[in-house]
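pasting input
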Amino acid sequence: MTKKIWILEPGRTERNYWSDLWDYRELFQVLAWRDVSVRYKQTVIGLLWAVLRPFLTMIVFTVVFGRIANLPSDGAAPYALMVFSGMLPWTFFSTALADASNSLVGNANLISKVYFPRLIVPTATVVVALVDFLISFSILLGMMVWYHWLPGWQILFLPLFIVVAFLASLGPSLWITALNVKYRDFRYVIPFLVQFGLYISPVGFSSGVIPEKWRFWYSLNPVVGVIDGFRWCILGEREMYWPGFLASFGVTAFFLWFGIREFRKMERHFADLI
Amino acid sequence: MISVEHLSKSYLVGHQLAREQRYTAMRDVIGLQIKNFCRKAYDMARGRQIVQGDEVEEFWALDDVSFEVKPGEVVGIIGNNGAGKSTLLKVLSRITEPTRGRVQLGGRVASLLEVGTGFHPELTGRENVFLNGAILGMTRVEIKRKFDEIVQFAEVEKFLDTPVKRYSSGMYVRLAFAVAAHLEPEILVVDEVLAVGDIGFQKKCLNKLSEVSGEGRTVLLVSHNLTAIRRLCTKGVLLQHGRVRKVGDIESVADAYIDDGEESLPVFSQPNDKEKGVTLTSVVVGGDEGTAKNTFGYNERIHFSIEYEVNFPVRQFQVWVGIRTVEESWVFNTADNDTEESEPDYRRIPGKYRAEFSVAERFLNAGRYYPVIGISHGPSRTIYDRVELPTFAISEVDVPEIGRPGVVAPLIPWKTYLSD
């Protein structure tokens, strides 16, 4: 039996970082499962909360943007359906970002008492948001039945966009949660960012209303690519604007790389700072 | 195998300026706030840690620590509070990174730094076993295999499906220790967990730990319980102010630790301050003969002699002494006006006073004690509050039973009759 030898030195980048992470995959499952099962304990309507929040926002947005502002929908798609297919990935993104940003500070007792790859904590929270997302997906199915809406072949690509949504929320989450350990100011920045993002992302309206010349720059918001992708899969009414999607995806990939890099740089000091 | 070479760890600590310096004029207060804000903003822009306080200082929790541990050794790490024991364990268990130096670990480390870390109050006992096991590095298969053993060890079979927030603190701790005790790492790091649970359970824990070491695994143990350390460990490391004072076999290291405690003279003294209503001038802890000393046998009385000077007349005067343990729990508190009403309204006219009392023999258990003193007069004039006095120890000589749990070990007469 060959025994591994660990060497602890200042500033040493773990050579076996990723294999270490793999060794702890069960902890990842357990933490995600813990957060899911605790999330709605001692609430009356429990899991319904995951469904109710996006549903109510969807109604408000349909009324405000669709009825009062009279913005156009994507082709023949009912406005409510269009809003909800954007609301789903947005809720996922914002819940993941908000929860993951507080995840390290919220698990301070674990961080300062036990060793495990810290990357697990924020990633597990993103998975919890994904579970919420899958639950509220059932509303979308219900709405499709209600409107007699049959999606086209594009729906087959939906899992791909769910993965993109996952990565898009993971990158910034890792960066912000690490910063939040060091500078608690970020706790106050996130709710604001999330609120702001709701209006600059095409949640309540179609990205088709953006003037053509701004379209590409608008797509630099990583959520735009995800939401457009979702609408393309579910509604299939408008052609996918691929340059925009690639730009979105590029930004997502950059943030993922940057988030992991910054996280790893800071994670060795978490226990001292938390 | 563990090899620690020139290990150092520093922290930044912030200090607040003294009250008088802090609040003098509005202008200064604002100036200070602006200065602090600029410093923090500068630190953040440079990506550095921000520290609360007016002045920042670097503090070395570990300073050039080196030692080696062979496989299968059980090592006790001892030292006073703040000597760096917990920091050392945190570095070894990879929770925090050293500032300088190098550690080589020949195997997986599992740390047991606080019992019940990672328990979630809303989850049931059964769920928490899996959660805590995973946090401590066990695989699901491993936990499943040991589940029955863990539950049996913890004695909580009946409450497995109750959320742990409904558990008594004893049950909680038992379950947490049980999970940790069934870990199988090559190196086990344990910080002060023996101070929990009732007597029976403590014994069980100690047995479990010696069983673990019997299987050839390396154990590092921090405890203030010298008796337990002596029983379990083969080797000791004595830390003092972040440095290694002694490494060697456990007996010699433990003796060195006890001797260190004796180095400080068991006398507190300071000059009279005429500005104050009352000055505490001297406190001597000693034997019946009146000579100062700080190690007592179980059969000896501990004599306190307190001298103070009253500079102007005071009323409702009180001197009190509290005896505390190393964990800062209060063994008892006693005051000069408990039993004696020397003067009406506890007046003291100016002059020198001496107050004396003794702690009865055959009362305190073996261990080290940390007395504190306070003086007050009037309805709420506190002149001294919890001033630390020299510590003293009760040696294990003559104690009815070495290792008997309890802060006190009074011999209580029993009577037994054949009742039927």
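fyi The first strand of chain A starts at residue 6 and ends at 8.
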